[in-house]
Description:
The protein is of the alpha+beta class and 200 residues long. It has helices at residues 6-31, 41-75, 81-100, 102-106, 108-120, 196-199; strands at residues 126-128, 141-145, 148-152, 164-167, 183-186, 189-192. It has 2 domains: 6-100; 105-199, no CATH class. It has 6 helices and 6 strands. A 6-stranded antiparallel sheet has the order 1-2-3-4-6-5, with helices on one face.
Amino acid sequence: MKKYSRITKNSIKVFIFAHLAIFVYINIMSLAPYNGWLINNEAISNFLISMFVFCVSGLLFVYSFGLLLVKYQKDSWVAGIPLVISSVTWLLVLFLLPFLNLPFRFHQKDYENSAKIVIRSQGENKIALPEEYRHTSVTGGVVLIYGRVFYMQSIGMMGEYGPGYLYDPSNTPERVCTKSSGIFLVPDWYWCSLDWSIVW
């Protein structure tokens, strides 16, 4: 078996451990109840830890690219394994994790119970959730429109509204979601981007 440089072998071990830890951390953070509008010690701690994780990941990515350039002649394609590990980890985070909808799967009962409470309410289309259900929406509240309940899951850096979970007992999400969304999760529930022109 060909002997590869110690730097390449150690880099592969470090990258496996580091990116496994990053992937587990991001999975745990996606499940943790969190309200993006609250500025408290917990929110600040989560933000600082997340920034540290992203910075470390970025440095590792740059290092892996440099390792491939420097060690390719000696170690051939094996020098590219750290770069592959880094790339695959973030592809899983960006494409597999949202597809799994783990926050919804783990808190499904909370979503269902809060949706029943919201449906019974009258008047306002923006409704603050009871304290025990605030973790189901990034704003701590929901939008009620045409008998459907929308739980926002992300807010862009410029304040634009992102996708979320839609409770739709009539199973016609196309009435309130954008044309490119409306992914079925379980009966009466969808992942979609709300057509905010209808709300405003």
